[in-house]
Design a protein that fits this description.
single chain; 2% strand
Length: 353
Amino acid sequence: MKITSQLDHKAIRTWLLIGVIMVLVQIMVGGITRLTGSGLSITRWDIVTGTLPPLNLSQWLEAFNLYKQTPQYQHINEGMSMSQFKFIFFWEYVHRLWARVMGFVFIIPFFIFLVRKSLPAKLIKRLLVVVLLAGLAAIFGWIMVASGLVNRPWVNAYKLTIHLSLGISLFTYLFFTWLSYRGYKSYPLNNNWKTAITGLVVLVMIQVAFGGFVSGMKSALNYPTWPTMNGEWIPAIVFDQTHWNQDNLLLYDQSGFMPALVQVLHRYLAYIICIAIIVFAFRWYRQAEPGWRWISFAAVGIIVVQLLLGILTLINSKGSIPVSFGALHQVLGILFLTFLVYIQRVIRPRRIP
């Protein structure tokens, strides 16, 4: 009985880790789908029948004709070839198919472990939260796609950011569900450290949200220069009070105000976070025990690479956003957020004698 229990524990731990990796892959594919403009290529959300792609010329023509009715085709991609359509269809199809595969990878083992009574009550509660987050991410994914099928040729940036934030929340929560089940070593420090790292987590969460706005509004295409924004440190349009109104906030694609504003906020918050991380890493290295000093090097290394990826994405966004740099920038940002939450989690308040 004891051996069976140990085998189940190892199997559950592996299952949770596979889920973590699959969610990260899904977010990465979602980023590629967005950067390649593929998200609107499939105009229907058929949960069952949509599992299979078009299998013959007639089905491909039907899918292509449906896409031709969208604003994206009519305003941006008019005249594209069938092979070009198949390319953007591929990424959206993979994104949706991977979501379905994740569902089966979760549901089948879940019921097996449930029947075997191998899942602790606490873990079951956590997994129900995972299901809730996954469901919300899927629902907002379709709401996001639907926003680009009428009137505008792109998905709504606000709905995209909600969809992305839910995906990141799912990844982070599942990661720590796995980590808690596997077990981890805590590090006793005073509460000031926990408060400081919590502040960093909040800053990075805000920055990730701004990243969603920047991506959704394609503001990098308006300002593909660094360190200035087309010769200005802050574009003059941001200071023009006549642009600070509800119409520009909601109809951001009809004015250059919001793309400029989110670009400014995303850039300068990146500088603030970079400085804060360097200060944190320096102080952590001076105070931490030798076995924990790796956190200082990891924090500085990640933030420097992330900043470079952001700059490379910007300066190469001439006409289109570079898929490789943009996707790596997004994934590393998510991993950095998870890394900070990990540090915040392992710190245990030190008992005062």
